[in-house]
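Box 3.1 A note on notation
Throughout this textbook, protein chains are presented in two layers. The first layer is the amino acid sequence; the second is a token string describing backbone geometry. Keep the layers aligned when reading.
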Amino acid sequence: MRVLVVEDDERTASFMTKGLAEGGHVVDRAADGHEGLFLATENNYDVIILDRMLPKLDGLGLLQALRASNITTPVLILSALAQVDDRVAGLRAGGDDYLTKPFAFSELLARLEVLVRRSNAPAVETRLIVGDLEMDLLSRRVTRAGQPIELQPREFRLLEYLMRHAGQTVTRTMLLEAVWDYHFDPQTNVIDVHISRLRQKIDKGFDRALLHTVRGAGYALRADA
């Protein structure tokens, strides 16, 4: 990890920087808020340890300045202020975690590792886009060219699968397994019926078709001609 420690107390700062360096981590240290803000904006860090009570610029002011600059580096706030209101204020200012003094180094390190692991986790996809067709997975809202499209639950699942595989040919077997949970072909026209309904809803009235039949293979959703 590359860590920025913003702490004005020499003893506390030395304790943290020594422990982190011994663990193989790269550590920069700032002794006041202005220096901390400069380092945090000029360099890339995996995590920042930020004391709340700092000279020149307090920790919350520094944190708010970072978030206003769209710097999303995880921040662990370190403070002797242990009241619930103090912790809430720190988190609302943009902090990712809050640790009160005195603290055990093992807990500090564990919290830093969690913050870095969380920040490196792949983002959860909440929106699918193919051409001018958009699907919001959270609100379950579908639009094309800004116009809302009302889908039944099965139609939504079918379109979601097609959008996740945009540009690819999707076979009947793939659709049966993914959308209907069938691991065999029930020899019905259920797919054809739902594809026809879906095509009417997402393509009818628009200049360009998105949902295509790939003769002898399956279906494909694509924005290109």
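The domain at 2-119 is CATH 3.40.50.2300 (Rossmann fold). The chain has a mean pLDDT of 92.
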